[in-house]
């Protein structure tokens, strides 16, 4: 029988867990700790929450289950005492362009009810259309969406100045990045049109006849073009003939066509540089039909209310509650009370600066996770198991106390809170700790110690315990001096959401850290910086050209100081792949080199096998029964689909012919099963492969299996894979680069932060410039230059309030400065609330 008041896990083997059995007290705040990759999330999220979710789904009808995406069944013998769970993990799953803060939190539904139900608001002039409903305030519905833009608020239209960026050059020699690969079929009409009109395409674009330029951009209308032209192929000995005898579609229409037909977000991203967002003239960009734009409540229409931040919505709701008459109060009061609770929760989670209309794609990783968290916590349920995967990620120390208070309130309401966390100061306030380890990946997956925080702190084998006891090593880094003679990278006219700066100066060849409270504009500035420098470095874009950062809605008017720079790398926490076929080996290109080594063996040559023969993504040496997956998906209809080991290759991905070829005694599938650290010992050459593996190890990914599915990687692991690529590029590139990173140590155990900082120094050693946006105070204190944004969040932030060396910023009067002073003095950061205001 299950002991009363505990959750009993027996024989958990999910991911890297090694037959874990553990007893977890219910009704407590339980922290799951351990070094990065030790198995915390595998136990809390992928085992406990997944099992609870599947048990709930099995209670639904088969008809309903077939429409629900279900997690895989966790590998565990049994779990006793587990009730209903709610979880918020780190995965960025929402890529819907219409997903906003209001839709994620459910606040849009409450506002729709208020606008459509309160007596006295009424349908007014819309009586002929029937009574108002919530659908009139939802732009995703036919009733609520603008009929001209269908709720999108506008449309992306190709713009001439974006398609033709260098009119002083010939069209196919740099005038347009769109025509750079003009031999592809969609561009062949231009030589045909030029031949028919007798136009010399070797002349600069602006020198060509106006009528010809118009037809290239906008098409020939009803006029058919009859022309035959020979087109040189990549193989100079071959030619292909293009014949046209019909009207030609212009380049602008072609851009819009291929963008509309692109099926994936990544494919659409390739065409965004040629498109400009044009607001809908009918709805003025709101996406709402006339009813939602006309009906007013508390002095604002529904679209107007969505455009103000959470703080202002709270004031609006409070004022509305005071003005309700007796007839309205019966309907409005319950709605306003629930709305107020959700808004307060957003405020306490450091999100009061966000507008309700803010798109999910524009939020930082921490903001998106906390927005999703507020949706889960905005309930008064009890006896629930809440699973929170590193909710403190992306939070300024000033905001972490609110997170802790919310977790404790959930516990006191009769719930169990499972907190996957790295922050020692949050862990110390938990009731119980499950510490995983001892290492990461294959070296982890065991319970080191389980008990109160004091018990973990006393365990000498626990890395977490050493930091809890104050014995953990402080971050070590030798600052590089910044002085008046240092080279400077300057951005002028920076505009990114709430951030605005006429001039932003960054020392070249140094580590610069952007700091500030959550919502002060760090990620927005970082995104605009990366996009602005990337555009300025393009040969086809003149320096000083304004550029739009489509992720963070930012622009940079001008970039100077780029002499000597040749590239820019943006290192974020987006997934490196969305299919199980993507893995660290394929992403880093290490597997390309491994396959070449196998293809060079005598056994491979005897079989006529080239490098592609050893790919599990293409036919050749792979097992065709499972198409190289190593597993086969069994459709269970109304039960969750089940992955079973392929009975043809026994899970090895390859056919016997490919497995007969070995390199240094290893088959190709065995290589994919090696960790990065193990592969380093095997592959000492070629030099490029050894450098790639070394870079992965330097950023703390030595524990990852080369063939581990990208879908199993955390956001931090995906980011460190990108960082490894940047480190390798920085060491081999002939020209210096700019590397920008958004919270690079987010989700890292304190003992792992040192390795990432060391990797940043490797980039600096190679002459590169590194800029990070970071909440981690030790990282900020070790930077060469700090730019502190604020003073607050949202409309109260976005300005540079202090900049200079860490010591200079620590002497300023800003929230971050107080925490820098406390860190320098060796004081706890969570007790810095009063000092931070001094």
Q: Order of strands in the sheet with the most strands?
A: 5-12-13-3-14-15
Please identify the top-level CATH class of the largest domain: Alpha Beta
Low-confidence stretches: 121-128, 182-186, 539-553, 832-838
User: Which shape, going by the Cα principal axes?
Assistant: globular
Per CATH, the superfamily of the largest domain is: P-loop containing nucleotide triphosphate hydrolases
Structural overview:
The chain contains 32 helices and 27 strands. Strand 10 (296-297) and strand 11 form a beta hairpin. A six-stranded mixed beta sheet has the order 5-12-13-3-14-15, sandwiched between helices. The protein has a six-stranded mixed beta sheet with strand order 21-24-25-18-26-27, sandwiched between helices. Strands 17-16-20-19 form a four-stranded antiparallel beta sheet. With 838 residues, the chain is an alpha/beta fold. It is globular. The protein has five domains: 6-84 and 383-468, Rossmann fold, CATH 3.40.50.300; 101-153 and 289-348, ABC transporter ATPase  like domain (ABC transporter ATPase like fold, Up-down Bundle); 156-279, ABC transporter ATPase domain-like (Helicase, Ruva Protein, domain 3, Orthogonal Bundle); 488-575 and 714-836, P-loop containing nucleotide triphosphate hydrolases (Rossmann fold, 3-Layer(aba) Sandwich), CATH 3.40.50; 584-712, ABC transporter ATPase like fold (Up-down Bundle). Helix 4 packs antiparallel against helix 13, helix 25 (676-682) packs antiparallel against helix 26 (687-698) and helix 26 (687-698) crosses helix 27.
